[in-house]
Amino acid sequence: MRDYIDVFINGREHKLKGEAVFQPITDYLRYDASLCGTKVVCAEGDCGACTVMLGRLVEDEIEYKPVNACILYGYQVDACHIVTVEGLKKDGALNRVQEAMVECHGAQCGYCTPGFIMAMTAIFDKCSQDSGSACAESCSEKMVRDGLVGNLCRCTGYEAIVKAGLEVDAAALVSFRDLFPEENMIERFRELAAVRAEIKHDGKMAILPSSLPELVEARSGYPQARIVSGGTDLSVQLNKGMIEIETMISISNVDELDYISGSEKAGREIVEVGGRVSLAELESYLLKRHGDLDYIFWVFGSPQIRNSGTLVGNIANASPIADTPPYLFVMDAEIIAIGPKGERCIPITEFYSGYKTLTLAKDEVIKAIRFALPGPADILKLYKISRRQHLDISAFTAAIRLKREGEKIVEAAVAYGGVAATVLRMKEVEEFLKDKPYSLETFEEAGRIAADSIKPLSDVRGSSPYRSQLAENIMAKFYYETAREEELACL
Ligand SMILES: Cc1cc2nc3c(=O)[nH]c(=O)nc-3n(C[C@H](O)[C@H](O)[C@H](O)COP(=O)(O)OP(=O)(O)OC[C@H]3O[C@@H](n4cnc5c(N)ncnc54)[C@H](O)[C@@H]3O)c2cc1C
Ligand code: FES
Ligand code: FES
């Protein structure tokens, strides 16, 4: 067993002990490693000033992803390589992104600049990873804007920054693999991940199991412990002093939770997503399977949040306004829980017992989530209503899935979020829709039934009457959108 966290930073190995394990890694970077290029502004994953590249071993190579270091704690970065803005230079020279930002006047006070440079470098690195060779073409404006959704600038204005992204000579950008030879790191990461780590400091304990059986043992040994996955929910609460955690179990070295598998059941494509799979990995796996699924990933947080956050974390956090549950509700997803007595499946409709409470036993962890993908006969729409398009928490969410035979609705599944303590399957609406004609009148009446069957709360994201109105109107919106798509398909 180890009593330290081992992380490489800009190619150099660091051993984290004591307080450093229980702090955001930005504190270590800035105050212990003197790498002050990484800034902290919001400390809640919202502004991107703290963006670093996090390299993890995936099969036989290190994959780099941009993440928000302010919500990444020491116990989450074991067996990882962090590249900060200081690590980008080669032989003392700026990299191509840094040069482009200088040439296009992409900085004024400069506080956000390192974060933008890291996020922009990541756009080109991803492009070359996806294509298997250096990204020879400049990125499109959409790619640049999408890649920078998680970064805020308060003074320069985005035109100059986006222009810099479009000016980057991507073919001449040195890849992370060329900057930091990986052989030694890979060998060390394998050694580290094979050994359980347990670090104690000042009444706190972090446990890093190295396998699924060790995770189950740790969970049943410490039922009060919090499981930490991407930390994008938990670390924000820690940073803001909303919670204290004495014992945390980080699943970052449990490789058995890092899988996505596909199968078929009764003619439907089924996907199983392990507990450690990030939203970004799932997004790539599902890419272009269904437009509305793509859309939900596109509006989910930012690239940095999707690289750290997991689907399982989104479900386990039990927020009634989380973005993925409505889809999982209408696709009859199942949670695969594992504990000392073995595995069991819990239908997602039975997984929540109340506001932020689960039916998961104290000695269980979530191993995976299993759900169907929409088939050719499914008409599916997913909705996220928030004050702004990106980096915002929903006021209301909905998923509507239908099957039709001619003009008759033969199957309907409807789930709403943000209207009760948990996400709800709207049973009365589903029963009403079945065998009804596919018409505006049907959906308007379904909307009225939906609004009558809920009693939403008022909070900062929306009042109760506003949410009731959304619950009603979304049904007509579904009709207009799907009827229009049908019309276009016939042209
Ligand atoms: C800036 C920002 C933007 C965001 N935007 C969105 C958004 O657009 N839509 C949205 O829905 N959410 C959003 N979130 C919330 C968050 O990113 C998601 O809920 C994410 O999916 C959480 O995953 P995680 O792995 O980071 O969870 P963590 O923070 O690690 O954990 C969350 C909860 O799940 C539990 N848990 C995790 N894994 C397991 C397991 N295997 N077994 C049992 N329990 C487990 C933890 O104990 C904890 O209670 C945002 C957060 C931030 C900071
Ligand atoms: S400091 Fe704002 S995202 Fe980290
Ligand atoms: S240059 Fe000042 S915040 Fe962006």
Supply database-style keywords.
alpha+beta; Uridine Diphospho-n-acetylenolpyruvylglucosamine Reductase, domain 3; five-stranded antiparallel beta sheet; DNA polymerase, domain 1; binds flavin-adenine dinucleotide; binds FE2/S2 (inorganic) cluster; 491 residues; five-stranded mixed beta sheet
Q: What would your notes on this structure say?
A:
This protein is an alpha+beta fold. The chain has four domains: 5-87 and 180-250, Beta-grasp domain (Ubiquitin-like (UB roll)); 91-173, DNA polymerase, domain 1; 263-372, Uridine Diphospho-n-acetylenolpyruvylglucosamine Reductase, domain 3, CATH 3.30.465; 379-490, CO dehydrogenase flavoprotein, C-terminal domain (Enolase-like, domain 1), CATH 3.30.390. It is 33% helix and 23% strand. The protein contains 17 helices and 20 strands. It has helices at residues 25-32, 96-103, 113-131, 141-147, 158-167, 176-179, 183-193, 212-221, 234-239, 279-286, 291-298, 303-308, 311-316, 325-330, 427-433, 440-452, 464-490, and strands at 5-9, 12-16, 51-58, 61-68, 80-83, 197-201, 204-208, 226-228, 247-250, 260-265, 268-274, 334-339, 342-347, 352-354, 357-358, 365-372, 379-385, 396-405, 408-417, 424-425. The strands form five sheets. Strands 2-1-5-3-4 form a five-stranded mixed β-sheet. The chain has a five-stranded antiparallel β-sheet with strand order 10-11-16-12-13. A four-stranded mixed β-sheet has the order 6-7-9-8, with helices on one face. Helix 9 links the parallel strand 8 and strand 9 (247-250). The longest helix is centred in the last third of the chain and has 27 residues, at 464-490. The chain is globular, with a radius of gyration of 23 Å. The protein starts with a strand and ends with a helix. The model has no long low-confidence stretch (mean pLDDT 94). The structure holds flavin-adenine dinucleotide and FE2/S2 (inorganic) cluster (FES) (2 copies).
